[in-house]
Specification:
It is a single chain. This protein is an alpha/beta fold. It has two domains: about 40-230 and about 420-435, 3-Deoxy-D-manno-octulosonic-acid transferase, N-terminal domain (Rossmann fold), CATH 3.40.50; about 235-415, 3-Layer(aba) Sandwich (Rossmann fold), CATH 3.40.50. Helices cover about 45% and strands about 15% of the residues. It contains 18 helices and 13 strands. It has a seven-stranded parallel β-sheet, with helices on both faces. Strand 9 (about 280-285), helix 12 (about 290-295) and strand 10 (about 315-320) form a beta-alpha-beta unit. Helix 3 packs across helix 18 (about 420-435), helix 5 (about 130-140) crosses helix 6 (about 155-165) and helix 6 (about 155-165) packs across helix 8 (about 185-195).
């Protein structure tokens, strides 16, 4: 009798897996059409279209190959220390890095020149989860070991790796309460996928519990990849130019904002300027394509960096709708409000360790469910806000007093120092899996 639940679970997973397999095969023509639509909206590139169907970006090099897959910007930045550790550990190794978004791909290419051994890094877009496209991708690249980051759980891809006896790891595994509840409708399929991983690392204790509830047999490491990340890079010449442009002005940053937060930030900007008429808000949308929409809701003539426009002394808001420059704006040490956290947006937060490591005072809205562990780490240094008045009350003393701003920034930096040993540990584990 005790074997019956396990047999039912395997049967359920087989049925659901076959259903997903068949549905994705049927939808392949629709996905091709959707890729063209995404290209027209700037969500894909001409180069990404064939790669999304599993075609290669370049010849496969001889020798050992590790494959890392990161969905978008946050995951891409998080794996950079592991990427560097892999290259240092084995001078003959090549690493294939796939991303799922154009922004993630752009960030990756922006960061590659700073990586020693970057000539051994291959980049391309990940295939969509169509069996034929997954097979084409895996059969061409033949990775010795693969690693998916956070919540990239694709049934066909994971099944294809398993069928090829390719060790697969889950790095920074993330499973929210909402995701787990959604997966319960296909819990046996989730359990089969999680049980396939040769090594599972959870981002936090809470994520570890939920991943085990979902079917992961064990969690071998609980740590956040973002704890290994150094401060975001910036171009010193660009920073000098920015400092000259903004010299003498009280400046604050609203970073990685999402739809639904703009009105609150613009209202806070106006309140700050009532006390400090020359104050300037740098509003940086998470998705740069939102720049035009934000400008439409701001004062007429609000400058946009993507259009090459710089703020004048009369401007109180500057929409910095460019990609890959967050390190530049954080390097100024200005107070930073982290977006995707205020009432009105979808919520979940963004990584507060990035501005903290640059020595910026940090504030956030209350909706930080995706980054609870990071916020707990710097809890004594974060101010939580909700309304325009909350934001203004936090900002005005910092903008009025350079000493208070420097003290708050130094406290944030002290709590956010990176852990370089974490990346080395992950890299050595992946290399060991690839040799088995």
């Amino acid at each position: 009798m005790s074997r019956r639940p396990a047999i039912r679970g395997r049967l359920c997973a087989a049925v659901l897996g076959a259903g997903w397999h068949g549905l994705s095969v049927l939808l392949a023509p629709v996905l091709r059409v959707n890729l063209r639509r995404r290209l027209a909206r700037g969500k894909e590139t001409q180069a990404s279209l064939p790669q999304r169907q599993g075609l290669a970006s370049r010849p496969r090099p001889a020798g050992a190959l590790v494959w890392l897959h990161a969905a978008s910007v946050g995951e891409t930045v998080a794996i950079l220390p592991v990427l560097e550790a892999l290259l240092r550990a084995n001078p003959a190794l090549h690493v294939l890095v796939t991303t799922g978004t154009v922004t993630g791909n752009v960030i990756l290419h922006d960061r590659l020149p700073a990586i020693v051994g970057q000539e051994r890094i291959i980049t391309q877009f990940a295939p969509l989860d169509v069996p034929r496209w997954d097979a084409r991708f895996l059969d061409y690249w033949r990775p010795d070991v693969g690693a998916l980051v956070e919540s990239e759980l694709w049934p066909n891809l994971i099944a294809a790796c398993h069928a090829r006896h390719m060790p697969l790891a889950l790095l920074n595994g993330r499973m929210s309460d909402r995701s787990l509840a959604s997966w319960r409708r296909a819990g046996c399929l989730l359990a089969r996928m999680l049980s396939t991983f040769a090594w599972v690392m959870a981002r936090s204790t809470e994520d570890a519990v939920r991943l085990q509830q979902g079917g992961a047999p064990r969690i071998d490491l609980i740590a956040d990849l973002k704890d290994a990340a150094p401060p975001l890079p910036h171009d010193p010449a660009a920073l000098a130019e920015l400092q000259t442009l903004l010299a003498g002005r009280p400046v604050w940053v609203a970073a990685s904002t999402h739809e639904g937060e703009d009105a609150t930030i613009i209202a806070a900007s106006a309140l700050v300027r009532q006390m400090l008429p020359d104050a300037l808000t740098l509003l940086i949308p998470r998705h740069p394509e939102r720049g035009a929409d934000i400008a439409a809701h701001a004062s007429p003539g609000t400058p946009r960096r993507a259009l090459g426009q710089a703020p004048t002394a009369q401007d109180g808001l500057w929409i910095c709708d460019t990609l890959g420059e967050m390190g530049l704006f954080f390097a100024s040490g200005a107070p930073v409000l982290m977006g995707n956290s205020l009432p009105g947006c979808t919520g979940g937060g963004h990584n507060p360790l990035e501005p903290a490591r640059a020595g910026c005072p940090v504030a956030s809205g209350p909706r930080i469910g995706n980054f609870r562990q990071a916020y707990a780490r710097i809890a004594d240094s974060v101010q939580f806000v909700e309304t325009p008045h909350d934001i203004a009350r936090w900002l005005i003393p910092l903008l009025q007093s350079p000493e208070a701003r420097l003290k708050a920034g130094a406290g944030a930096r002290q709590h956010a120092l990176p852990d370089p040993a974490l990346a080395r540990k992950i890299a050595s584990t992946l290399l060991a899996l690839g040799q088995n």
